[in-house]
Amino acid sequence: MQNIFFNAQHAPLGAYATFTLGYRGASGGLGFELARPADQNIYLGLETEKPFLFEALPFFAESENDRARFADPDPEGPPRARIRSFAPEEIQREFHACTDVWRAGDLTFSVYTPLHALPDPDLAPEGELKKALVPAVFAELVVDNRRSRRPRRAFFGFQGSDPHTSMRRLADSSPGRIVGVAQGRHTGLAAADPKVQAGLAFSLEELLGPNAEENFHFGLGTHGALVMRVEPGEQRSFRFVLSFYRGGWVTSGIDACYYYTRFFRDLEDVAGFGLQRFEKYKAAAVTADRELEQAGLSSEQYFMLALAVRSYYANSELLDFAGRPFWIVNEGEYRMLNTLDLTVDHVFFELRYHPWTVRNVLDRYAERYAYRDQVRWPGEERLHPGGLSFTHDMGVANTVTRPGTSAYERFGTDGCFSFMTHEELLNWILCAAMYYEQTQDGDWLRGKRALLLEALESLVRRDHYDPAARDGVMSLDSALTRGRGEITTYDSHDASLKQARHNLYLAVKTWAGYVVLEWLLGVLEEGRAAQGAGEQADRCARTVTAQAGPGGALPAILALDGEAADDARIIPAAEGLLIPYLTPCRSLMTGTGRFAFLVTALKNHLQAVLVPGVCLLADGGWKISSSFENTWLSKTYLCQYIAREILGLPWGETGAAADRAHVSWLLNPETAYWAWCDQMVAGAAKAARYYPRGVTSFLWLEETRRPAG
Predict the structure, then answer these.
(1) For 295-702, CATH number?
(2) What's the distance, CA 134 to chain centroid?
(3) What whole-number distance in Å separates Cα of residue 392 and Cα of residue 339?
(4) Nearest Cα residue to 432 out of 409, 449, 408
(5) How far apart are CA 481 and CA 256, in angstroms?
């Protein structure tokens, strides 16, 4: 690994909280509902052979001693210890999907984050839900003092950063139960070991100084730590639970609270529960690591998957709204709720571990975030019937928007913040197809019969108001744009991917929508509607393939309705193949299937664009468009799966070089602070940071053919 000092998120499922650690300096910590790392000082260290001289992992920076707020600095002052960082060459890191291990000198620090299923709250026993939703992360500190002739102290602590609450000792409110330090009622660090003491001070140097134990109770201290003593000749392991808790209503727009508050009273209750079951959570993390490591991924693929799933967990949130579960995935640094064009990419991971959450989000969109519109031809004032679609998101930063509206979309806007009407309609359809395929939930599908019929009608109307002029591709924009253009999920890109109308990426995705609607409506015995969807799919496939140039490449913007094609070349042209391939529609795409010609055309296209100077960068990384530098890793992961599994493209050294390049982007010092990031420019993250969407990498685990190398 080129750089071990990258932030990784260690997060419980459904708590929208994270213990972020790994980037040097005050750059991690215990974060709650944040769009970035908490930027706290984290203290993890061990006394050297010299008394009161400590060495620590480099996750802290110089901090102003808060004593100065109360009195002039005292040159004498209380006796203080000295803390220095371990030298970088002394530090080792073993990073896995569920365990993160740091070693330096005689100290080993491990963090355990289990990866597990989340049972359906409507069906699961309360005890199972409680274990799955405990808002805690687990850590272990091992001190090897067997070669020393003197006792040494170790410590684990943090500097509080919440201006609204003070640091406190947990034992002061829960005597005899646990020992720990906390920031107010929301975040804390706890142990259940008689060898551990909890203390507060203006600085950690004061806390570790001579005679400091007499003042461990100091309530004005902004630094809190657990201090452990290890005798000479002894090796000791200390176990900790990092807990998160927020009670009461946590949303605006609706009244909802965290679902885990059904099972836990407060921070201390969370810590106690976690400490009692520490071994089970640790074992679950180790087991999950072993299973993923045996899946046949390359070391680069495994690293990217491990970093990505942690960021997904950190953005996950399960609320209790009116007595029912409300599942949310927050959009990284943007904090938008259940962004639908991310949901369609999370679905592969979610259906593996908690399929009910996909249904929960789809139902919420159907009940509260569906809307109907009209459509217009570019440059014309005349409006035509449009139909059903869904909003871009459900709100932002725990503020839930009113029904039928998003936090993102604005009327009469070009580019970012315009409407994604056509694409969000497709996203709902495709998620519904995946949910039904994976669960065979016939009752749910039958309950959505009317909505699916309306979705088909809406898609067709966005093609052309004249049935005789339809070609299967979106040509009319929503009237909500006020004469401007709709956009796609690639909102910060150039026209090659951002423009919705006649876009190659969206055209193939539209084909996918028609194909799965033909299947789903057939299951529902809606024969006439299914036939209509199939006819539109045929039209769309013919329109797309007719645009191929002499070398097989397809234009990013199709030459339709007398408009010129865009000469840019895009990798996501093939993205629409994915979900039909994962359903019974696969038979239409393989061998002599009805759409084998479309698959062949897209294979030829990718072969033509995945070359240096077009969509391959100098370092071997993939660039999703030939005309713009902003490339998205989540979509790259998805398209890599399509290239290998669906299109059968060779991988070999060229593919391995791409993976190495993508890892180097994530480990770039400009990026490494932000954990997993999506949008990259010149090998560094420029947007979509602290992001959940990288779980598209879990598609790699489904491949029937492992890539060479």
Answers:
(1) 1.50.10.10
(2) 19
(3) 6
(4) 449
(5) 32
Alpha-carbon Rg for the chain, nearest whole angstrom, is 27
pLDDT value of residue 292: 94
What is the distance of C-alpha 511 from the center of its chain? Answer: 27
Q: How far is CA 101 from CA 112, 430, 657, in A?
A: 9, 39, 27
Using the Cα atoms of residue 471, residue 473, residue 479 and residue 484 in order, give the sign of their dihedral. negative
Answer for the pair 225, 157: CB distance below 8 angstroms, yes or no. Answer: yes
Alpha-carbon span 286 to 309, nearest angstrom: 15
Tens digits of residue pLDDT in 683-696: 999 999 999 999 99
Which residue type does 662 have? H
C-beta separation of 491 from 334 below 8 A: no
Spatial CB neighbours of 621, under 8 Å, sequence gap ≥ 6: 631, 658, 661, 662, 665, 683
Residue type, 185: R
Instruction: Give the pair of three-digit tokens for residue 411.
Output: 């009327």
Is the separation of the CB atoms in 260 and 15 below 8 Å?
yes
Numbers of helices and strands, H then E, in the chain: 19, 28
Plot region of 702 (φ>0 → left; ψ -120 to 50 → alpha; else → beta): alpha
Give which of 377, 427, 365, 449 is closest to 401, Cα–Cα: 365
Going from the C-alpha of 399 to that of each of 336, 481, 510, the distances in angstroms are 9, 24, 31
| DSSP characters over 326-370 | EEEEB-GGG-BBS-HHHHHHHHHHHHHH-THHHHHHHHHHHHHSE
Structure tokens at 385: 């019937």
The residue type of 492 is S
Q: Is the pLDDT of residue 709 over 70?
A: no
Task: Collapse the DSSP code of 243 into the 3-class scheme (helix H, G, I; strand E, B; otherwise coil) and give the result.
Answer: strand
Burial class of residue 627 (count of CB atoms within 10 Å of its CB; 0-12, 13-18, 19+): middle
Instruction: Tell me the two tokens of residue 470.
Output: 């339809």
Residue 61 — left, alpha, or beta (φ > 0 → left; ψ -120 to 50 → alpha)? beta
DSSP state of 402: P
**Identity of the amino acid at 423:** E
Per residue, what are the HEC states of 436-469?
HHHHCCHHHHHHCHHHHHHHHHHHHHCCCCCHHH
* CB of 697 closer than 8 Å to CB of 305: yes
Q: Is the dihedral of CA 485, 487, 492, 496 positive or negative?
A: negative
Comparing 104 with 78, the larger pLDDT belongs to 104
User: What are 93's strand-pairing partners?
Assistant: 102
Count of CA atoms in the C-beta half-sphere (13 A) of 660: 12
Mean pLDDT of 267-288: 97
DSSP state of 503: B
Give the count of beta carbons closer than 10 Å to the beta carbon of residue 368.
Answer: 17
Query: Where are the domains positioned within the chain?
Result: 8-290, 295-702
- DSSP E strands in 8-150: the ranges are 8-10, 17-21, 29-32, 42-47, 53-56, 82-85, 91-95, 99-104, 107-112, 136-145
For 512-536, the pLDDT digits (tens) are: 999 999 999 999 999 999 999 999 9
Residue carrying the six token digits 């730590």:
225
Residue-wise pLDDT for 277-286, tens only, equals: 999 999 999 9
Q: What's the pLDDT tens digit per position in 44-77?
A: 999 999 999 999 999 999 766 665 566 655 555 6
Task: Name the nearest CA neighbour of 436 among 495, 366, 351, 499.
Answer: 351
Contact (CB, 8 A) for 492 and 630: yes
Cα–Cα distances (Å) from 142 to 107, 213, 665, in that order, read 6, 22, 33
